[in-house]
Design brief:
The chain contains six helices and ten strands. By secondary structure, the protein is α+β, with helices and mostly antiparallel strands. The longest helix is centred in the N-terminal third of the chain and has 10 residues.
Length: 200
């Protein structure tokens, strides 16, 4: 009522700054200033996108595949990754390069179970952080890699390795570098990944 009355009583006049701040806070648009580290690629009120350089990480593989279960808890090399939190959903893509991506950088499929062809992660056993702010970035990465990768998410091909997903990771246990030649093209650039909506 107050908003309607203000707008009706002042046609053509700009709204006071204080009123706009109050209105924005009412819509949940109050955001604390944050210092953006170099790994941040995009940030809005409900979107956070960042990248991580290639590194070695422990993976937990579960499910019914006995060969995969033998790899549970081992250390593996991983490619450079792009993470996106949109609303409450986590998306992951991979890159064949090791430098900070540009808008036109082509992305690759994330070579992990529980991640579909759009990069959407099935949360499963993940303990997803409550907030998607700069401070939560390491918590999202930790949650993703400490969850159990249990099965392919739909009919999606995750790697071009001739032996498939399990043989790829079996050959990488204890190695230092991820062979990016086995990454599959995701069919989108960083710009497209960042701006893609939920309609996919």
């Amino acid at each position: 009522m107050l908003i309607e009355k203000t707008l009706r009583n002042a046609p053509g006049e700009p709204l006071p700054t204080a009123f706009m701040r109050t209105l924005a806070q009412g819509f949940g648009a109050q955001v604390k200033p944050e210092i953006m580290p170099q790994n941040i690629l995009a940030r809005t009120l409900d979107l956070l996108v960042w990248w991580s350089q290639p590194q070695r990480r422990v993976m937990f593989l579960g499910g019914t595949d006995q060969e995969a279960r033998k790899l549970n808890g081992l250390l593996f090399p991983h490619p450079a990754l792009i993470f996106k939190v949109a609303g409450k959903e986590l998306f992951v893509r991979a890159m064949a390069t090791t430098s900070r991506p540009r808008p036109e950088t082509p992305l690759k499929m994330a070579p992990y179970w529980n991640t579909d062809s759009h990069g959407l992660v099935c949360a499963g056993s993940m303990r997803v952080p409550e907030f998607s702010d700069i401070a939560s970035i390491s918590a999202f990465e930790t949650a993703y890699f400490q969850s159990a990768f249990t099965q392919a998410a739909g009919a999606v091909r995750l790697t071009s390795h001739p032996g498939g997903f399990v043989r790829l990771w079996k050959g990488l246990a204890g190695r230092k570098r991820f062979p990016v030649r086995y990454l599959i093209d995701a069919g989108e650039t960083l710009q497209e990944f960042v701006t893609r909506g939920d309609d996919r």
